[in-house]
């Protein structure tokens, strides 16, 4: 009696689906532009947003020694700039996260450099070594947007294409005026076709775990059925041998 081969095949399919999970990298503080001597922590998350137990970290495709879920960069240097990825033993590498380390007294930081119409973003005028910045003014395309005596983050909500452009800030540190380098922020038009395309496939992240569970259940059922068939086959063979050896029936 042939043994069903569906079980191992389904199990391999389940394993392949599990291995398609991809972790994500977040930053704490959440800025991907920092100044020299700043400190930032990169955190490797699983799909469920929990931190992984252990991780392999790479910087510009070079493997790092850190193996925990958190990669701490203390007193950042210019050479710490570049792309960072993480992965654990059960995943493929994450999408790259770019970290830029700059030299200067002032740096304009943004929560996002590319946003879609209707979304929001924040900008911040950051001083070297976290020194206090006063008399802060934010500019877009050379036009002053807001002035604060103290350094306060500026939020731009429900953005439109007109909110895109070159942003920079000015401020005073130790009674000296400083100006940050400009930062381009792009605002994309909200495309109904694009959002529909994303929602069309967003259900896959929920379908895959369910499919894996179904495949595992089917594989288990086939395994039990195969065991029962083998037991029945062995019992039948023993019965036939017993009849041949019985002298009264020979």
UniProtKB/TrEMBL annotation:
Domain Ig-like span(s) in chain numbering: 23-87, 96-186
Native species: Ursus maritimus (Polar bear)
GO cellular component, one term: external side of plasma membrane
GO biological process entries: immunoglobulin mediated immune response
Signal peptide residues on this chain, from the entry's feature table: 1-26
Gene Ontology MF annotations: high-affinity IgE receptor activity; IgE binding
Gene3D superfamilies listed in its UniProt record: Immunoglobulins (2.60.40.10)
Keyword Glycoprotein: no
Keyword terms of this UniProt record: Disulfide bond, Membrane, Signal, Transmembrane, Transmembrane helix
Chain segments annotated as transmembrane: 203-225
Entry protein name: Fc fragment of IgE receptor Ia
């Amino acid at each position: 009696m042939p043994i069903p081969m569906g079980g191992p095949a389904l199990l391999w399919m389940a394993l392949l689906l599990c291995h398609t999970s991809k972790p994500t990298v977040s930053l704490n503080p959440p800025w991907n532009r920092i100044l020299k001597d700043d400190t930032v922590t990169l955190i490797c998350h699983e799909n469920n947003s929990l931190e992984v137990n252990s991780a392999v970290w790479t910087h510009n495709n070079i493997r790092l020694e850190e193996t925990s879920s958190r990669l701490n960069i203390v007193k950042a240097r210019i050479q710490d700039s570049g792309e960072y990825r993480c992965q654990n033993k059960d995943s493929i590498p994450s999408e790259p996260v770019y970290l830029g380390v700059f030299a200067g007294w002032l740096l304009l930081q943004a929560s996002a450099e590319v946003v879609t119409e209707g979304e929001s973003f924040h900008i911040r005028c950051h001083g070297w070594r976290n020194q206090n910045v006063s008399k802060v003014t934010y500019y877009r395309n050379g036009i002053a947007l807001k002035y604060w005596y103290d350094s306060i983050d500026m939020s731009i909500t429900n953005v439109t294409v007109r909110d895109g452009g070159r942003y920079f800030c000015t401020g005073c540190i130790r009674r000296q005026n400083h100006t940050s380098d400009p930062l381009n922020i792009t605002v994309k038009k909200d495309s109904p076709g694009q959002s529909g395309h994303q929602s069309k496939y967003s259900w896959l992240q929920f379908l895959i775990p369910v499919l894996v569970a179904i495949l595992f259940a089917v594989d288990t059922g086939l395994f039990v059925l195969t065991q029962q068939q083998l037991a029945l086959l062995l019992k039948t063979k023993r019965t036939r041998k017993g009849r041949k050896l019985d002298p009264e029936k020979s």
